Amino acid sequence: MAVVDPRNPVRRAGQYAASGLLLCLLQGCQMFGLFEDPPPPDPYRTLQIEAALDVNPDLYGRPSPVVLTIYQLSDAKAFLAADSASLMDAPPSNPAWLKHDSFQLRPGEHLTRRFVPEPGVRLFGAVAQYRDLDNAQWRTVEVFQAQTPEALQFDLERARVSIRLIPFQGEPSSVQQ
């Protein structure tokens, strides 16, 4: 009977060749990115603002420009309790109001912006400076989760402002940051 010698040079050469081939295959997978970490998610979110053709009517019923102020909020209590004058005229003084941006829109105007949510943002609030505040829904709040790829749509209607989340549809073509 023949005894197989584990120190056989041919067998060892085959083991070395198989190990070398396996290392080359793993290195090739790394070259093509199969074992790389996925890229971090895009921190930017899309903000779309649309003013209706009949937005903010004057005394004669003609549409006129409106100023929309968008707030990034960590808590909505103080925002919902504040009166219109303090929200529209004074800068945010509450620590729950993380950031705000104002936009003036003409009737029928559409804006698209990209933004990075502030750390700790949980809600978005909007205040529209309508001419007739007594008969308008000039303030609204919407829950926002920064880790989801949803966009925010702000609609300025005749006498009502609203926020809605829209599913991510890819990169907008002409976007300002």
TrEMBL record:
Keywords: Lipoprotein. It comes from the Bacteria. Pfam families: T6SS-SciN. Gene3D superfamilies: Type VI secretion system, lipoprotein SciN (2.60.40.4150). This is Type VI secretion system-associated lipoprotein. The lineage of its organism: Bacteria, Pseudomonadati, Pseudomonadota, Gammaproteobacteria, Pseudomonadales.
